[in-house]
Amino acid sequence: AVGLLIGIEEVSPEKQVQCLTALLNPLCHQIESLVMGAEAQGLEESSPRAISLLQIVVALNMVTKGFNERLVMISRPTIGVMLKKTLDVVLQLLVSFPNVRPLRSKVISFLHRMIEILGISVLPCIPIALRQLLVHNEAKDMVDFLVLLNQIICKFNSSASGILEDVFPTIASRMSVILSQDAFSTGPAGNTEEMRELQELQRTLYTFLHGMVTHDLSAVLLAPTCRQYLETIMQLLLFTSCSHKDILLRKACVQIFVKLIKDWCTTSKADDK
């Protein structure tokens, strides 16, 4: 509620800075203090420190609710600088505690919000955050990771190419194992929670790939660091487009193929590709 009240343009810039300083500084200092203590003693998911950190990140997220990109990056850039510094503090939680899943989830939520309102200024922060999010992640964690990447793609288009080239090899290698053709059962086991998580991951992966090719990022697949995984991705797309029971997923895979053909087979370098 506080964020919605102070984030509107009717509030003067001076008053906004004053209110944000009073809210952000103590919360950031609390994070830094809790991190120092937790690094020395370890951090369990249910510990008081972990719960306090969760609550602080949620509070910071709420404080930003009333702000938008035009206000904080164009009209009142001082506020953008304050929020960027806050993001830097919050992202340290991923570096210090990458395996505390409830905390990681809240940090991802905050990062989603910061991408929305800070725009291009968050790009330098993202690679480190993404690398930490790839530490010890399971199928459900990969879903959250790919959803975040999809937001980055939709927000920044071709400006995200360097980020994608950095993380795509890890994504492709893990997906080829997790989503292998024999990983899906057609029997009773197909109704298990684990199987539902795999199916959700599969849908999210193809949404991610569809986002890449429709936002002028298909060249990432041909980058030197990514090209070795091209055949693996193509086999996944081919298998799904031909045999998956979900017609919408089959259609999405066909659309990806069509876009790749347009991108790669209608230029002067088509033969090489």
UniProtKB/TrEMBL annotation:
One Pfam short name: Exportin-T
Domain of life of the source: Eukaryota
Keywords (A to Z) from UniProt: Cytoplasm, Nucleus, RNA-binding, Transport, tRNA-binding
UniProt family annotation: Belongs to the exportin family.
Location of the protein in the cell: Nucleus; Cytoplasm
Gene Ontology CC, one term: nuclear pore
Protein species of origin: Aegilops tauschii subsp. strangulata
Exportin-T C-terminal domain location: 1-270
Functional description taken from the UniProt entry: tRNA nucleus export receptor which facilitates tRNA translocation across the nuclear pore complex.
GO MF annotations, alphabetized: small GTPase binding; tRNA binding
One GO term of the biological process aspect: tRNA re-export from nucleus
The protein's name in its UniProt record: Exportin-T
Primary site of residence: nucleus
